[in-house]
Design brief:
This protein is an all-alpha fold. The chain is built from 32 helices and no strands. Helix 10 runs antiparallel to helix 11 and helix 10 runs parallel beside helix 12.
Length: 777
Amino acid sequence: MNTPLSPAEELALIAGELARLDARRAHLTARRDWLLRLPPIPWPSAPAPPPLPLPVKDVSGRGAQNVLLTLGAVLLSVAALAFTLVSWGSLGIAGRAAVLAVVTVGALVAPLPLLRRGLRSTAESVAALGLLLTVLDAYAVHAVGMSTVDGTAYAAGAAGVLAALWAGYGFALPGLRLPLPVAVAAAQLPLPLAALASAADPVGFGWALLATAALDVVAAMTVPRARAAWPAGAALGVAALAVGFVESAAGPGAWAPALLLAAGAALGVAVAWRVPRASAAALAGALAAVVAVAGPLAPRWDTGWAVPAHLAVALALTLPAAVGAASVPAAVRRGLARAGLGVTAAAALWALASVVPSLAARLRVLGEVWAATTPGVDRPATGAAVALTLLVTAGAAAAAARLLPGRPEPGVLAVVLGWAGLFAAPVLLGFPVAAALAAQLSVTVAAGALALRPRPGVSGPGIAAAGCALLGAGNVAVGALDGRLATVLVLGALTAAGAAGAAYRAGPGWARSGAAVLAVGWATALAVSLCALSDLAVVWWAPPVLAVAAAVVAFGPRWGEVRLPAEAASIAPGILALAVAAPDRHALALALALAGVVCAAAAVRADRRRLGWAAWALFVAATWVRLSASGVVWPEAYTLPVTVPALVVGFLRRRRDPAASSWTAYAPGLAATLLPTLIAAWDDPHWQRPLLLGLASLALTLLGAHRRLQAPLLLGAATLAAVALHELAPYVVQVVGALPRWLPPALAGLLLLAVGATYERRLRDARRLRAAFGRLG
C-alpha cells in the first residue's frame, strides 16, 4: 500500500483509532450490564378483539315521534274533512253545531295540558288539527247559514276573522310555534280577496296588495315571532309594484299608477331605513319613485323622450341621496345608488341600440363607392333624445368614476358612452354630410388624443378611448367613400392624425405604436384613392403605393421607439404594390425593382443590414421578370456582365478583409448566373447549355474545395447535382419502369437497415463533415 504518510506517522494514526474503538466498546458493555440489572419489562400482549358493533338505528327517537304525530294529525284531518263534506247532511242543525263546537274546542284546548307536561310535539299536532277545524267551521257556516253571500267576499271576511283568531290563539299559548305563521299566511288574503270581490281595477288590486305588504312589514318589525311576514310582505310588495309598472306603461300620463308606485317607493325606503340589510327594498322603492315621477310627465311612449325623462328623474332622485349626508343609512344609500345605476344602464343600452343601426347603415356606401347617388341613412325619429341620453349617461359615469377612483369600469363607460353620443349626434340630428363627417372626424381625433394622454401603465379608459378612435376612424372613412373629395380629405386627415400621435413622445408606447401602424395604413389608403382619381391603369398603381413604404424608411430614425411597428406595417403597402402589378410583367418588374431600392435604402443603416438580402432577391426577381417580359432566350448575356464585376468586388473585399465570409463575397455574383442558367437548362431540349453549365459547376466545385471556400463549393456542387439529375432523369425513369415493382421497396428497406445499423458512425462522420465545411472560408 502506498500512502503519503511516513511509517511513524501511520503507526500513530492507527494507535489513536484503536484507542477510540476500545473506549466505545467499554461504554457499550457497561450500558448492557446496567440494562440487564433492571426489573423485567412486560412485553405488550396481543390487542383485544374489538367489540361487536351494535345494530345501527336508522331513525332517532325524536324523528320517529314526529313521524307518528304528523301521520296522526293528517289522518284526523282527513277524517274531519270526510265528516264535514260527506256526512254533514245526516245530522240536524243542532247536531252539526254540537259536533263541530265540541271537536274544535277540544282540539284547541288540548294543547294546554300537553304543554304543561312537556309534550310539545304532540301539542303542535293537536293544535294543527284545531286550526284546520276552524277552517271547516267557517266553511260549514257559509254552507248552512250564509249561502247567499258571495263566496269571494265571504272568503275575505273569513280569512280576516281566522287570522285574528289564530294570532290571538298564538299569543295565548306562546309555547306553540305554528299558530302565528299560519295567522300571517291567512292575513295575506283578506284585502286581495276583497278587491277581487268588489271588481276593482288593476290599480285597486295593487293597492290591496301594497296595503297587505305594509301590514306584513309592521307585524314583522313589531312582533318578534312573526318573522314569516317578511317574505310574504316582500312578495306582495313586488307584486304591487309590478302592477304599477305595467299600468304606467300601458297608460302613460295616468296619475293612479303613479300614486301607487309613490306609496310603494315610500314603503321600500322606510323598510330600508329601519332594517340595515334591506338595501333591496330601497332599490325597489327608488325604481318605483322614478316611474312614479316620470310616468305622468311622459305623454306618450313612442316619442322616445320617455327614456330621457326617466333617466333625468333617476339621477335627480337617487344620486343626491346616494352621495348625501352620513345620516342617511347605508342600506338606503346602496339601494338608491343601484337604482340610479340600473336606470342609467338601461337608458344607455336603449340609446346604443338606437345608434348602431344608424352608423352601420354607412356600409351601404361600399356597394356604391363614388356613385352619383348617395345611399340613405336610417336614423331614429328621436335622434336628439338618443344623443342626449348617451351624453347624460356618460356624465353620470364620469361622476361615478370620480367617486370611485380605484375602479376602472366607470371611466371606461364614461369614455364609451361619451364617444358614442358625440359621434352619433351629427347623424342622429340630420346634419349635412360634410358637417357630419367633419364633426365625427373631430370626435375621433379627440378620442385618439385621450388614448395618448400620459398615464402610468395601461389603463382601461385609455384602451377604451383607443378602441373608440379606431372604430370612429373606420366609420368615418367608410362614410367618406361616398364622394371623391371627401375620401381624399378624410384619409389625409386620418393619416396626419396618426403620424402626429406616433410622434407624440409623451404618450404611452402602445398607443403610439398603434398610431404609427394606423398612419401607415391610412397613408396607403390615401395613395390608392389618389391613384383611383387619376387615369393610371391599376397595374401602375404600384409606384405610388410603394412611396408609402419609402417614406417610412426615409423617416425611420425619426420614429423613435415606434420605428419597428411602423416598418412592420410598411410591409403591407409593399405586398399590395406587388399584388396590383402582378397581372403585367413590365409593371411587376418595375415594382420589384422599386421594392428592392426601398430595402437597399433601409439596409444602409447598421441595424438593418439583413434587409440587403431582401433587396438582392428583389433585384434579381425584377431582372428576370423584365427579361421574361422582353422574351430573352439567352439569359447568360445579361447575367455574366453582372457576375464578373460582382466576383471581382468580392475578391477585392476578401483581400482587404480576410475574415469576410465567402457567402458575402462570392454568393451574390455566382447565384446571379448559376440560378437563371439552371432554370433555363432545365427546360432546354439541347445539350450545349447543360454541358457548359455542368463543366462550369464542376470547375467551381473543385476550385472551392482547393481554396477551401464554402460558397463556391456548395453552390457548384448543388448546381452540378441538379444538372446531373436533369440529364439522368429520363434514363432513371426507364430503369425504374423496367425493374420489378417489389425491388424499390426492398432496396429502400435494406438501406434503412444499413443506416440504422451504423447510425452512430454516420453521425460521427456527419459531424466531421460539418466541421470540415465549417473550416472553409
